[in-house]
Amino acid sequence: MPATHARPFDRSGDPQCAITYYSVGANMTTWTATTTIAGELVTQATHTGGQPDRNDVTIPAGHHTFIAWAALAKITDLNGTLHAGGTQYHCSVAPAR
Question: What's the predicted TM-score (pTM) here?
């Protein structure tokens, strides 16, 4: 996995959900959401030149990987929210190390 620099959309969040992202070449960015509890996970990558890549899935606790069909340099926002037990947990976002 190539080294990734911090981006303006990096943010802190609740400990129940953490997103790490990395570039997978000229036309793809991948991110993994790690959750400590089960629930409905909504993630979205917004990028120039196309529709946002949005995922809305019911997941168990664990690691969940998603793809945006855009280069990391074109991603303008990446975010996620985990809905569980009537509570919303905002995911932290950071580059993969």
Answer: 0.90
CATH number of the CATH domain containing 87: 2.60.40.4070
Domain, as residue range, for 34: 17-95
CA dist 7 to 26, 37, 41, 42, Å? Answer: 17, 27, 22, 20
Q: What is the pLDDT of residues 37-46, one digit of tens each?
A: 999 999 999 9
Place of tokens 């080294």: 3
Q: Is 37 exposed, middle or buried (0-12, 13-18, 19+ CB in 10 A)?
A: middle
- The tokens describing 47, both together, are 């990028």
Give the number of other CB atoms < 10 A from CB of residue 46.
18
